[in-house]
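Thread: quick sanity check before group meeting

JM: Hey all, I'm pulling together slides for Thursday and realized we never actually wrote out the predicted structure for the chain we discussed last week. Dropping the sequence here so it's in one place. If anyone has concerns about the input, flag it before I start.
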Amino acid sequence: MLEKIDLSRKLDKDEYKKVAPPLREKLGELQRQARAANVPVIIVFEGWEASGKGTLMNELILPLDPRGFRVHYIHSENEDNQNAYWPPMRRFWDITPPRGRIGIFSHSWYRSSLDDVGLSPAKAHEAYEDISSFERQLAQDGCVIIKFFLHISKKEQKLRLKKMDSDSSSTWRVNEKEWRENENYDAKAKKIDEMIQYTDKSYAPWTLVESHDKRHATVKILATVASMIEKKMEEIESHSLDERSQETGETLEVLDRISGLAGSTLAPSVLKNLDLKKKLSQAEYDAKLPKLQNRLRELQYQLYKVRRPMVIAFEGMDAAGKGGCIKRLTQKLDPRGYQVSPTASPNDWERAHHYLWRFWTAFPKAGHIGIYDRSWYGRVLVERVEGFALESEWRRAYGEINEMEAQWSRYGAIIVKFWLHVDEEEQMSRFKERQEIPEKNWKITDEDWRNREKWPLYEESAEEMMLRTSTTYAPWTIVEANDKFYARIKVLKCAVSAAENSLHK
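JM (edit): ok, ran it. Output follows.
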């Protein structure tokens, strides 16, 4: 692919002076439009060493309002030890631009794959799948993704490196890594071709920039950015909400085919057939609780030693006992090694990002335990039932969540997901108890009563959620929670078992 690019392309000074100023003016206006429309923009600069990334990025940002963009220089994983604490894509989720802002990346999520000369083809493809998932999810959420690869020849690169090395003001930028890339130019060109082949998608296309001539490269970059943002603005203006919903029909069919549910009926209700009469006596509970808690604490230290994170998510009907289970789960854990994250309605800053952003950024460090009182499944539960998410949004969330959890699992995370279930009679009993006991009043709200009226819808949503997202690497465990003692012991047993099984593999 790269060998077919015409690197002789140039733009003379007169032509440049003619076309560049209008493009810059247009970019400034498009930035304002994107901000008004709450459209986030990501612009990626990859390319050969000495291909002019810094210079061309500067040409791009000159017409932009500096309050509306942020430039990120991405270090390799070896240069930033913090990266070892989290899954590879976590650090990029952390710095995705909020709605209406522009994120400009000098190097990006592609850097590790390109820099790692010993990366096997299988691992490279796995990395490209994770990247494509990341970019697709952002694009489906409304982000404009523009990716540039700056191309120069081996000969041109060598000339530029020599020039930089001989100049006292730039010699610091040339070291063994840059010269090694030039020596291995042909081998790296093959890796770049493969990267482009696997990650050049309609929602995040690559633009190859012939970078021998600065004027030509500048105009191509300005024109490409302007064109892609303008296209997005036109789409927003011309598509009504109803039209957008109709367009998702094909996407929804694809999701059904992928999940194996096309043309089928959902399995008979698991929740309706639960044996909610399961109980433990006070004596049984008192005997089992400390043993399981002590064992979980031992496993916590083992997880820390081998740097395995553990993710425990709790979902369930209101008043099903999530808080009580979490309290007993953490009662004897070392508080330095776990964090409980209660998930409420997103605040303004969280709404300015993709809905998974706040969960990626709250992922526990290597060797730590992250416990979520409600979780990323809100998109397919409360947001689905209450209409806070479009049908197209919550339907594609099943696949997005599976992809996220798959990445966490490949990183080594142990993922445990609990659905705590009570029947309507038990829920009513607990609601009344919360109303009558002063110290429990804070637990009951008008929203709880409203949710109760939609019991069948929440039950249906939970059934489909578990059917579509219970995977080998992140299975659901349904907890019969009418009896609090039984539920707490089952949760502890499952957490202990998951940790022990993963550590013994």
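AS: nice. The chain has a mean pLDDT of 90. The radius of gyration is 27 Å.
JM: adding both to the slides.
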